Amino acid sequence: MNLFPPLGRDVNARGQYCGHSPADTPDTDCKNPAAWHIMWTTDADTGLACNQHLAQARRFVFLDSHPIGPDCVMPGTHWDFDAKRCVVPDGPAVETAVVELPTTA
Ligand SMILES: [Zn+2]
Ligand SMILES: [Zn+2]
What we know:
- By secondary structure, the protein is α+β, with helices and mostly antiparallel strands.
- It is about 10% helix and about 15% strand.
- The relative contact order is 0.17.
């Protein structure tokens, strides 16, 4: 008997790096691992930031942010504003947890 839940493949945010890049070229890319997930706009424009660059990001207007979690980098993930995390749509209780993004005219 298998007592352990099926956890699926081993996916986490490790290996994801901060998106800060002052000149927007690979040479200026931040080499720190991402610690924060940022929702920049209502168009679901999201980014990744390390602790240091979250402080810089806070100088700008953005909608929301949360610490990087295991589902943040999963394909098709949904941003959950209330729970401050990302959720994968076929996960449990997502229908009640996910907030629809407002549509912009
Ligand atoms: Zn950084
Ligand atoms: Zn996230």
